[in-house]
């Protein structure tokens, strides 16, 4: 295959975007995301949309949504040669209405959908030199082939929550050593129902978010260490509250104590009835699932805040599929819930002194209040006074995340767990994951909280593997 000459970007030229099928399947609203620029859909893209419209998957629903929107735009009076005006945007939508004769290198077999899209893009480049023709695709290999042919290609980035995953909100901040020197002049402190509050003014509060944790020092278990949560942020001042220290046995949650400051912050969020939505990020072994389950069981059985625990997760396999699973909904989900079983064994250890009968009774009691549900049946449901745990949330798109979070009814708390460094869903990255999306969008809401857990507590083997492999 001969290498093509790269096409330079000319900001003076009007742009014409050619959309690949996977862009429309990924974001049904992508047609309206290109502002004043024109869009063209090759005929092969419409063919591929037709092939993927059947089924109950999220991609099939997206395809049907795109088809309905195209049908709404194609009115009887529409002039395809002049393009269709796009609502919410200033550009126009064009369709391929004729066959374009464009020779491709012999190495690129004809009849393949990707190669036909490349041929259409090359033909449009030759026909419209006055325009900057750009192919947009989520397929890395198609973008590579396009560059070798001299086509300007781009990834679809409108769904990015952030430019870089390193910029993601962590949920905590370590204060400088001279913090009190700069912020103690107008300090006001008081107690209310056994809780300590502080009203602080100064330059640092401009960067704080609601329910963000601030600490002077991240010690192992220093009782005198100052750590607080930001309750309110105003232009001139902020109100913070000293947090409960869950690293001590007297504050143990279902027998579990925090082993590091970040776990302590996480338990403060999980146990706070005023926080309805919690996100926990962290690599394997940081304690996300164990802390969440302990908090859920404590609030279901001890505090009676919630009626039961509902657990679901994205069922994206790491290796080969093992085929269909028999049984009921919960039985089909059981192989995906190994982490749940492992952590329930730890939480049920307190019954060891009662012997095998005590362990069995405890397990039965826990199972009666824990429900494992599939995401496939979440649409239309409303959860009332439930503690909902969404595991492996990094594999969800922003639309799927919205579908799940909007199931929450009165008195329900939702906790999302995940590791954005381990994404198994095609076309999702650290910056486009639904988990990244909700962390960024919820960081200023007064009833949500987030913590990134960095320190592994599983074993020295797991910690070394996370660092070395």
Automatic annotation (TrEMBL):
InterPro entries associated with the record: P-loop_NTPase (IPR027417), PhoH (IPR003714), PhoH2-like (IPR051451), PIN-like_dom_sf (IPR029060), PIN_dom (IPR002716)
Gene Ontology CC annotation, any one: cytosol
Domain of life (superkingdom): Bacteria
Every PIN domain range: 15-144
Name of a matching Pfam family: PhoH
GO MF, any single term: ATP binding
Record keywords: ATP-binding, Coiled coil, Nucleotide-binding
Coiled coil: 46-76
Family statement drawn from the similarity comment of this UniProt entry: Belongs to the PhoH family.
PANTHER family recorded: PIN DOMAIN-CONTAINING PROTEIN (PTHR30473:SF2), PROTEIN PHOH (PTHR30473)
The protein, known as: Phosphate starvation protein PhoH
Native species: Acidithiobacillus thiooxidans ATCC 19377
